[in-house]
Amino acid sequence: MRARINPASPFARKVRIVLRERGLSGQVEEVETSVSPVAPNADLARSNPLVKIPALILDDGTTLFDSRVVCEYLDTVGSAPRLFPAAGPERWNALRLQSLCDGILDAAVISRYELAVRPEALRWKDWIAGQRTKIDGGVDALEREQPSWGQAFGIGQIGAACVLGYLDFRFPDIAWRASHPGLVAWFEGVSKRPSVRDTTPRA
Fold this sequence. Notes:
By secondary structure, the chain is of the alpha+beta class. It has helices spanning about 10-20, 40-45, 65-75, 90-115, 125-145, 155-170, 180-190, 195; strands at about 1-5, 30, 55, 65. It is globular.
């Protein structure tokens, strides 16, 4: 199998953490892939018509995308402890937490594109502020939920680690640590996990 990823992408980082937590790194080749909203990657487009990462190319040539689908597929490979609960309230809570984290990341990534790619004269400040509201509200929700996680590190917590890591990486002006002491302590702990430590994006 091959995973089309970019180390700077928080959605690709979810997949990379899952690979490591599931002990699958040796079975999946990570292919670093550049993407841009204004210059589509023609090579990637041949396997993923949405021209987005992450994408997982299976041995039979089938390509899976997006991160939610790829992560859940990888959770069925091998015999390591599962990251997605199989059924019941635990499953729905895990999927809900994953969706919350994906929503925060959606707002953060498109804000990054707006600030880094769109010419300054064309940037829409109110739109950027609206995305910031989603980010702030989402992180507040994670702070409220964090005490219930205990020692769990499933797909929801993986998403939370990617959220906080991406804010540190791309939005140092968002001082999320100032008012989220629970997340600060939690993130400090999970950042020591090899899967999280080894996938930390670098400037």
